[in-house]
Design goal:
By secondary structure, the chain is an alpha+beta fold. The chain is 52% helix and 13% strand.
Length: 218
Amino acid sequence: VAHVAPEKARWANELAEKYPPDPDAPYGVPNVIRSRRPELLSEIPEELLVQATADRPELLEVLRELGLRSSMCVPLLARDRPLGAITFVSAESGRRYDEDDLATAQDLARRAAIAVDNALLFREAEAAQRQAQESLAVVDAVFGAAPIGLAFMDANFRYVRVNEALAELNGLRADEHFGRTLRDVVGDELADQVEPLHRRVLESGEPILDLQVEGQTA
């Protein structure tokens, strides 16, 4: 909430907290978010105030005291999804909003929605990056501590990463594996047994467990 008079902004916040909007209301912010269509009330009719406060008569007196004259409510839309809404209300100024004002409000809402959406995307990207770093730290710990040979390979059966246990089995330093194929490292005899298994996993997406492969490495 923003108002030229700070005390009125505080009052509006207190009212919003004390009288939260009905999410199923057929008008105002809930309806604008639900329908994604703006609302323009060049003149706020008395009957609308009475209807809006039917179950809260004490609020009607507050709204009358505010002297509400005109209002606009426009949706915040980004990537075809509603993020919220902005409401503009005139009171003591006596200003009446018209279609030109509504067009300006919609342009402002569009820019605001893009800014909010970009901020959300940035936050999601940061969270994904943190998660990736945490996952990589777990992989590093497992690779460093595992007593068995472990390797990451790409779809062409080239080594991307190996741990020291596998490097010792293959008779090469870990960094000497990078970019080399399984066949380059273990030779044709073992590769003929292992490559079909790798290909089967890639094509089916199903793991192969407890399979014994025998052969001579370096």
